Amino acid sequence: MCRRLNDYLSGERHALSVVRIPSPEEESRRSVTRQRDQLRRELRRIQAMGHSLLLTQEMSVTGRWWAGKKWVQIQQMPAWVLRQLSAWKDILELIEAKARAVEAELEAAAPERLLVGEGKLSHELLSREMIDPRRFKNPRQVGNYFGLCPSESSSGESRRLGSITKHGNPRLRQLMVEMAWRMVAYQPRYRAVEKWGAILRDKAQSGGARKKAIVALARRLAVDLWRIATERITAQELGFTVTTA
Question: Phi-psi category of 63—alpha, beta or left, where left has phi over 0 and alpha has psi -120 to 50?
Answer without folding.
Answer: left
